[in-house]
Automatic annotation (TrEMBL), chain A:
Species in which this protein is naturally found: Arthrobacter silviterrae
Compartments (UniProt record): Cell membrane
TM segment ranges: 6-25, 45-69, 75-96, 116-133, 153-171, 183-209, 229-248, 269-293, 321-349, 361-378, 384-405, 417-440, 452-470
Domain of life: Bacteria
Protein name: Cation acetate symporter
Keywords carried by this UniProt record: Cell membrane, Membrane, Symport, Transmembrane, Transmembrane helix, Transport
Similarity comment: family membership: Belongs to the sodium:solute symporter (SSF) (TC 2.A.21) family.
Membrane topology classification: Multi-pass membrane protein
Cited Pfam families: SSF
Length: 499, 139
């Protein structure tokens, strides 16, 4: 591949991101602007921004890569990624917006009336964020290596530097614009090449570089490992993805930027539509990749399918342009998810450790980005979608029970919440580490490698039992806080007499 | 001068009209529209009385019931789909426009179902809230 194409695409995305960030700086002045964009972002903007933030390396590159490896079973990933928002809509979106808290630890403290519970939540949120940034940086390393031939670390470092600059200068307000732009960039970057490739493959226009497809080429060979994954693995994966989404810090912080609870619901509805459209395209890339680039899976870089397919199928200038578009989209994916995570982590770290000032936010942002960079440089990229799936399992075992029980059950106490989160976190972390040491054919491997199906219930049960055992520790303000979460705001159409 | 723009030490003649004074021109903190705090009247009403408390509890209960029903409905649909995929023998061989039915179902067919569940939920949740509002305002 011509390195100039990759360079141009990466530099163009970075410059545009920085420009929108600087434009955002002009409308972002107060502390409140910095954290949650003054809570006045419109549903369409907000939904695009959530889409931009959420569609990470795992979605953009990972799903197609996974289809290359495991075929049909990979489709459960995009389904889970999307349906996670359904659970978020049902159980969390509107109440969380009404809670009036900036971050998940804020929510924990307000609901449980305990700074101890707040600190435990903060630590978990920061861990989730760091774990989630690492695969983004791996994706960036892969992209830079594949498209420009530069060493891997350049990609990871470039993402961290650009993200730090945008976040430090603009805070969340500018991030909202950047994210919204990046969603549409990502969608275009997959949709346009997919369209051209489908035209070629179906023989509607042009010819493939390697001549027409041999007659009888089957995109879905009957030898497909149909449902080869065990029932348990699929189920556990779905539990992780469905319940992990509603604990992701960078997704949740977005809901605070809605004007009210009803707008938070509308935003989620739009997000679901946007994700449904987006996820059609990685599937198309994956299916075509199996036919045209079968070597990638054997070489151990199936995640590069999306990056290489347009260049391999469309020759000449057109191929270079499409490749540039895809590389730009991939880079947008790393930038947007990483910056979303860095913003939310910086919010948590600066409020807990640095007093919540704008200066503290900036220092915390650098810290939030540099730690995962060190981890990413010291580790190797696994399958991106799989790694991110494990982060979802961890979130579903820790933050998710806190949110669900905190929002819907009066009986939750601080002791119960902390015990549940610790049990879920320790079990899930231990299972994932053990899975790496267990032999491939051990019967325990699936259970350990995909632990959500038992760690999530364990966390819920611990939370409920310990809360029932410590009824005296119920927060006195809990009833009032619960009514704040669920009672609808006065509709904006009827402003009060004072205005 | 102190922050209020009033001279600190100069005596002001008692009969003088309010000094033409300084008009503080303050830039808005941001161009964003600052919304007032949205604690609602209905919430205040709810907190004042035992009846209000009961109404809030019933609102929470009906919202939770709604969420659980739609969530379990969706999961059941997903589960039945998976069962069909695995155990109905003809299904995986069936093709539409050359694409096998399992790929169509998992790659595209699930998403309209997700959208429909979400839309139904938002409608019903808003209706619950409107009912609560009507109840509180009648009181």
């Amino acid at each position: 591949m011509n390195p100039a194409v990759g360079f141009t695409a990466v530099i163009a995305v970075s410059v545009i991101t920085a420009l929108i960030g600087i434009y955002g700086l002009r409308v972002s002045r107060t502390t409140s602007d910095f954290y949650v964009a003054s809570r006045t972002v419109r549903p369409w903007w907000n939904a695009s921004a959530i889409g931009g933030e959420y569609l990470s390396a795992a979605s953009f590159l990972g799903i197609a890569g996974l289809i290359m490896i495991s075929g049909l079973d990979a489709l459960w990933f995009p389904i889970g990624y999307t349906a996670g928002y359904l659970m978020l809509l049902f159980f969390v979106a509107a109440p969380l917006r009404r809670s009036g808290a900036y971050t998940i630890p804020d929510f924990a403290e307000a609901r449980l009336g305990s700074t101890g519970a707040r600190h435990v939540t903060s630590i978990l949120v920061v861990m989730v964020g760091w774990l989630y940034i690492v695969p983004q940086l791996h994706g960036a390393a892969l992209t830079i290596r594949t498209t420009t031939g530069l060493p891997s670390w350049v990609g990871a470092v470039a993402v961290v530097v650009i993200v730090c600059l945008t976040v430090i200068t603009g805070g969340m307000r500018s991030i909202t614009f950047v994210q919204a732009f990046q969603f549409w960039l990502k969608l275009t970057a997959l949709a346009v090449p997919a369209f051209f490739i489908l035209l070629l493959v179906t023989g509607t226009a042009g010819t493939l570089p390697g001549g027409p497809l041999p007659a009888g080429t089957d995109f879905f060979p009957p030898s497909d490992p149909l449902g080869s994954g065990s029932m348990y693995t699929t189920l556990s994966l779905l539990v992780a993805l469905l319940f992990g989404t509603l604990g992701l810090p960078h997704v949740l912080v977005r809901f605070y930027t809605n004007p009210d609870g009803a707008a938070a619901r509308r935003t989620t509805l739009i997000v679901l539509g946007l994700l449904s459209i987006f996820y059609l395209f990685p599937t198309i890339f994956g299916v075509l990749g199996r036919v045209f680039l079968p070597g990638l899976a054997k070489e151990g870089t199936p995640d590069a399918t999306v990056l290489l397919l347009p260049g391999a199928l469309v020759g000449g200038m057109g191929g270079s342009l499409l490749t540039a578009l895809v590389v730009a989209g991939a880079f947008a994916a790393f930038l947007s998810t990483t910056s979303g995570l860095v913003v939310s982590l910086a919010g948590v770290i600066s409020q807990d450790l640095l007093g919540g000032s704008v200066r503290g936010f900036r220092i915390a942002a650098v810290g939030a980005a540099v730690v995962p960079l060190v981890v990413a440089l010291g580790t190797d990229s696994l399958a991106l979608a799989g790694t991110v799936g494990l982060v979802f399992a961890f979130t579903a075992s820790t933050v998710c029970p806190l949110l669900l029980l905190g929002i819907w059950w009066r009986g939750l106490t601080d002791a119960g919440a902390v015990a549940g989160m610790v049990v879920g976190g320790v079990l899930c972390g231990a299972a994932i580490m053990l899975a790496a040491r267990v032999g491939v054919d051990s019967g325990w491997r699936d259970v350990l490698a995909q632990p959500a199906a038992w760690t999530v219930p364990a966390s819920f049960i611990t939370m409920v039992l310990v809360s029932l055992a410590t009824p005296r520790r119920r927060s006195p303000g809990a009833a009032r806080f619960m009514s704040k979460l669920h009672v609808p705001e006065r509709p904006l159409a009827h402003p009060g007499p004072s205005r | 001068m102190n922050d209020d723009g009033v001279p600190e030490s100069q005596p002001v003649p008692p009969a003088a009209p309010p000094a033409a004074g300084r008009v503080r021109v303050v830039a808005p903190g941001s161009q964003a529209r600052h919304l007032p705090e949205l604690t609602s009247v209905s919430q205040e009403v709810a907190e004042q009385s035992a009846v209000g408390e009961v109404m809030v509890r019933s609102l929470i209960r009906s919202q939770l019931r709604l969420s659980l029903v739609v969530a379990f409905g969706f999961m059941a649909a997903l589960f039945i789909g998976t069962m069909v995929l695995r155990w109905v023998p003809g299904f995986s061989a069936w093709r539409i426009l050359g694409i096998p039915a399992p790929w169509l179902m998992l790659g595209a067919g699930v998403y309209p179902v997700i959208g429909a569940c979400a839309w139904l939920y938002v409608r019903a949740a808003t209706k619950n809230e409107n009912q609560y509002r009507d109840l509180v305002e009648e009181k």
